[in-house]
Amino acid sequence: MRVGFRIHRELKSTQQEGLFVFLLVAMQPVRHKLANAGVKHRANRSQRRNSFPLVRLLKIEETSMEDVVQNHQRIEKQILIGTEIGRKNYRFNEGHDPNRPVQMWFQESLEGKILFIVFYSQACRWSRCLGCNLPSKMSKTHVNFKALMAQMDDVFSRPEVLEQRHVLKKVIVSNNGSVLDEATFSSTALMYLIAKLNLHLPNLSVLSLETRAEYVDFEELEFIARAMEEGDTPTTLELGVGFEVFDDRIRNEVFFKGLELKTFEKLVEMLADYKFQLKCYFMQKPVMDMSDAEAILDIHRAIDYLNDLVRQHGVKINLHLNPTYAAVGTILEQSFRKGEYSPPRLMDVARSALHGRGKDITIFLGLSDEGLACEGGSFLHPGEEGLVEKLEAFNRTQDYHLLSELLAERENRHGSTVPGSRFNG
Ligand code: SF4
Questions:
Q1: I need a labelling partner for 246 at 20 to 30 A (CA). Which of 8, 16, 81, 192 fits?
Q2: How many whole angstroms from its chain centre is CA 355?
Q3: Which of the listed residues 93, 126, 176, 178 should we mutate to test ligand 1's pocket, taking the one with most ligand atoms within 8 A of CB?
């Protein structure tokens, strides 16, 4: 990754140049530490921080404009190949205004008020995960740093954001792919975003970035850590990583996630070194050949696994559990239409989460299909608003009584719907 050089090129003719020169100077000892091949993540953070003479910044490999164009074409090809492997037939969102984010909303959690932003960028390079149509909200072609920065300006000019800027405790940043993949999400824009957060959100305690694990580099963690230290309040970094399914075979051979446990565990070690935190996205019942009971068991095993990692490394982990919906343009939609797949029931999501009682991880239940489900293919059904409210209350409080009461009420009314199991955590 040649962060320094790309930033320098991108800065020409922008109004924000002064701000970035400042950020570059503040961060320059960091970006080249891994250019020094001997320095790997075995060194601890303070050793790494002190090991980079400023002069190394001058040794930056040049990239021609043709290289840049070819690189953009190569990324586009990767996206199309991934889309084909995942057997998806959606179109990309080329008509979207590149100066505005795709979506943003507010959430409540134990950590306080959250702003969730989905920026419009080039689609996820992996693109092949079964049943995922998040890339369809994105561009097939490259979205440059200027457009991304304009989206950030747009976010911080909205009255609803400015009105709540003092109460916002957490910002989750997504591009429906990997914010730390510099090929699809500009590093310049990422630094600009951190500067904006430091300027506008004085009480921010967590910045959460969604990314695939393989895009996480030490130099990025280090410069992000330094930039965040400059805000008014201490802000920590959380990485949101899609794990989706605990079962290895289903995760990689059926769902095509391409995530090995050793890659994930390396990431946990890295984050522990910085005392950063991790959000792991799981999906309940993400593939066709999984019964409701198997889906619950898979989440129980995920909870146990993450809990062991917390105890081993002292890292803070939140399991974010998304019930699966039949997403438009995917094979899950086709199976749903043929009656071969049904999304999980919210009561089963509660049964999964209840296993977290007494463990050292927190759990957040994703209760929105973000408008990406096909007709009738959501896990949300009319008449279940009360149930959703109780699950939202669980998100805010982590009070497991709410879940056990819900399940007890349901069992009293209908009897247990999962054979041989009372799922009392
Ligand atoms: S789940 Fe994530 S990594 Fe997989 S295709 Fe969707 S956006 Fe890309």
A1: 81
A2: 23
A3: 126
Helix (H) / strand (E) containing 323 = strand 316-323
Site of tokens 């095509």: 256
Cβ–Cβ contacts within 10 Å for residue 59, how many?
9
Measured by CA distance, the residue closest to atom 7 of ligand 1 is 177
What does each of the 425 residues of the chain score in pLDDT, given as a tens digit? 333 333 333 333 344 444 444 444 444 444 443 333 333 444 555 555 444 433 334 444 567 878 887 888 999 999 999 999 999 999 999 999 999 999 999 988 888 999 999 999 999 999 999 989 999 999 999 999 999 999 999 999 999 999 999 999 999 999 999 999 999 999 999 999 999 999 999 999 999 999 999 999 988 999 998 999 998 998 999 999 999 999 999 999 999 999 999 999 999 999 998 899 999 999 999 999 899 999 999 999 999 999 999 999 999 999 999 999 999 999 999 999 999 999 999 999 999 999 999 999 999 999 988 889 999 999 998 888 889 999 999 999 999 999 999 999 887 877 655 443 333 33
Tell me the CA–centroid distance for residue 8 and ligand 1, in Å: 30
Expressed in angstroms and rounded, the spacing between residue 124 Cα and the centre of ligand 1 is: 6
Q: How far apart are CA 287 and CA 178, in angstroms?
A: 22
Which of 79, 80, 84, 124 has most ligand 1 atoms within 8 Å of CB, for mutation? 124
Q: How much distance in Å is there from the Cα of 140 to the middle of ligand 1?
A: 14
Both structure tokens of 174: 């997504």
- Nearest-CA residue for ligand 1 atom 2 is 177
Integer-rounded Cα Rg, in Å, for the chain is: 22
Predicted TM-score of the model (pTM): 0.82
